[in-house]
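Q: Sequence in, structure out?
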Amino acid sequence: MTIRVLIADDHPVFVSGLSVTFDACDDIEVVGTAPDGATAVERVDELAPDVVLMDLRMPGLTGIEATRAIVAQGSASSIVVLTMLEDDESVFTAMAAGARGYLVKGAPQERIIDAVRSVAAGGLVFGQDVAAQVLAFFAEPRGSRAAQPFPGLTDRETEVLQHVASGWNNQRIARELGVSEKTVRNHVSNIFAKLRVADRSEAIVRAREAGFGAT
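A: Exactly. Output:
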């Protein structure tokens, strides 16, 4: 069976190179490309690919937001993140959004091909460096994680959630933390993804149940 792949990336040269790589595979076909997250969501709905290779940094809708939207619409497509970003926050936010794989750009072509085949068969795939980050997280002493109600959040996200639970808006949080409102919005978006909540109200309920914010 041929594995149908959609490539979502805003770098034409990179997309072209990946397409050439897959052209040499008898069992993989590139059925479409998308230069941004919103287009990726539309193409998945139109083309129903087996696997989506998703960059995270794209104009408009980000790869994380696109992944979340694709999963929310009930698509059977498996998403593999292929990005330059390898920080903990990007990795765990992508996983929380529903990605089934995470590779860093620069991975050998054979590794990318194997990842597509593995995910299409129902597996989970992580690059060596990313796998090490995941293992390190779960290798932490159980008590150190249990002490935090939401261990998947970064320290900054936990701080933001405390303020959200207290009913603060983004403008007030930004003033308190000395950052821009856009930065706060990004933190809030990541919190929603990691807590698997749909909106601010649901996040507040979850946070207050854990003892955050106003009582």
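The chain has two domains: 3-136, 144-209.
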